[in-house]
Amino acid sequence: SLVRFALDPVVLLPLTVAIIVSGLGFPVINELRAEWRRPDQWSTHARLTVFGTLGLLVAGFAAVALAEWNNGATIGDFTTGAKLLNAFTHSVMTRTAGFNAVDVGQMRPETLLFTDGLMLIGGGSAGTAGGIKVTTFLLLGVVVWAEIRGRSDVTVFKRRICPDVQRQALAVVLMAVGIVSVATLAILSMTTFPLDRVLFEVISAFATVGLSTGITADLPPAAKSI
Prior knowledge:
Elements: H1 9-23, H2 26-35, H3 44-68, H4 80-93, H5 109-121, H6 134-148, E1 155-156, E2 159-160, H7 163-190, H8 195-206, H9 221-225
Antiparallel strand pairs: 1-2
């Protein structure tokens, strides 16, 4: 993929910008074109998507940098600037882009697990990203927070979220987890690959990400079909 450009910000940074923008979704892009100077005028959907995207990018960047900083098989031998560049790039690519500037198969298990979460969440609705979508993930988080606080109403940015939307978010997440779990168990029964590698491949396929640890080519035909 982009391994030969791992030290080239002129190639990586424009790609990351394009991926972030396209991952917001067309409704949000159109809204930002009209009201980009006034975040307080954005819709709840736009604010959830933009702020959620930024939060996930920062979290992914920090997690990859911390986990892979001394991993000589990925970014451990890079300069500090190159390490930061590649940690950010990988965080962006998990949204659905599928490009890798370092060997994903050499990443630590904790990095793979965190990447699983980012891939499953995906990007914004009605865009080019896959996954369950940022808004779905955040809405479910808000529902959980309201339950912890003992609140009967679920609110985001002073707007009440109707029960129908809450049920839809819960249904999407549970169905996604169910599909990924069944597919992972099925492939594990057919192969001798470890759980972290199989789970990574399944989530990458489910969320149309395209990243791989390199085992897909060696899977039996039934597992490839799944």
